[in-house]
Amino acid sequence: MRLAKSWTLTMKEFAVFRRKRYIIYSLVALPIILSLLLPLSLLLPSTSQGIPASVLGKLLTSEFTIFIILAALLPAVIGSYSIIGEKIEKSLEPLLSTPATDSELLLGKSLAAFLPSVGATYTGATLYMIVVDALASGRLGYVPLPDWNSAAILLLVAPLACIFSVEFNVIVSSRVNDVRAAQQLGSLVVLPLLAIFLLGQTNVMAIDVYHMLIVSGILLVADVGLSFVSRATFQREEILTKWK
Amino acid sequence: MSTAIEAEGLTKEFNGVTAVQEVSLKVEEGEVFGFLGPNGAGKTTTVRMLSCLISKTRGEASVGGYSISKKEDQLRIRGIVGILPENVGLYEELTAYRNLDFYGRMFDCSEQRRREGIQKLLKMLDLWEKRDQIVGTFSKGMKQKVAIARALLHDPEVVFLDEPTANLDPESAKTIRDFILELKKEKRTIFLNTHNLDEAQRICDRIGILRTSLIAVGSPDELRASLWGRKTVVHLVSVNDKMIRALGDLGTKVETVGGNKLLIDVENPDAENPAIVGAIVKAGGEVRFVTELRPTLEDIYLKLVKDGGAPA
Known about the structure:
Chain A is mainly α. Helices cover 82% and strands 0% of the residues of chain A. Chain A is elongated, with a radius of gyration of 19 Å.
């Protein structure tokens, strides 16, 4: 595996993304909207009155799991374009004719979807923490974020969820011929991750380091499994002869 | 001169349907080899097999001395060939320079080599001034030129060009053809898939005609001689039976065309024509002029593709 070759592809992908407005808007708008609207929905005086401080702290932590969903949602926008876009522009044949292995090409494509998604998620999460700390510290009597739970979410669960989504979207991309269809199918990846958010919101599962480690373990196993499937799905011959 | 491409019984089947059958050919280093055939004849499939983009079903082939069957050779082959696919497949959002630079990097060209190579090729193709323009704004002909530059940037040993002038206006097509002729002067090995028979005749040293299997291989003159034979046309004031009988006595096969022309099969015009003309004059014929009927490559191609021909 020659990492330089994968990185060359990643940089080319970034250059293409910069010209795709919907990718830029998705990467910028979604994190900003989430990081502003979510805390405001809990912390505006009109909505937070009557919520005890101890409950409010827990709600803010469980709400933070939305960034797991965001980390999985963004690759659906980028990753689905990544292969189908090449398919539509018919640029896959020249790319496949370069002396790069399947693994190098897949790594390059995956990094191009992973890095901006995680970057946008971290930016949104930082903004969320700033807003929450500014609005909730006085009421709670302490600075709620970051804490160990949010650290586990950001440093473990979100990147693993992002990889899960990237791999899933590579598989989806190799099975459909339309960017929108790929994005819609690729977005389904958030459904299992939405469960974490809902379980946290309904107090069925505590959003703590212990549970986040368990979720991370499950995601890690799923990521490894999906990476094998995506590599098996990426068949040069099929891409060239069956993709229309 | 060594062999750049060698195929022996190369076959490709897709789900039981044979796309390419038992193709055997040799292309020498520095040769321009034209691959002609109707749509669906297997030309693109053959190129894809030779450039290790798809696998073969049976047979063997080597490119630049590397086997297409060996996993470890496949990356090497992709490194020494340049491909212009049927669809140019450029990144429309990137500039011409950025497109080429990306491919230069993928082919492990150093920065200096990329810089110099891109400059040289874009200048040759008259696109250097437009290097920083987004490819999406280019005309079809300009995109085709960028794609040709991409195929050549890493200085490949073998260049596969799939329909390089298809759907281009005559001026762009001529520029591309002239560029291929320049490459020919540089003694590059070029494998040219084309529908354009005139182009093949002008550019290629040898031609292979494919219709799933290879039905003929040779230089345009060889194909002409082997498939058509040679014919002398005698243009007369008028034709009469006495002339036909006189030519029959010479043992030649004669056909009357339009009442004032005789079409005569010959093996060696230089040796046979004086006797033919002598016999006609002796029989009272008034000869206006004598020509040789040279079938075009199109005639040969149509005859072969229509009749099937004998596998080469």
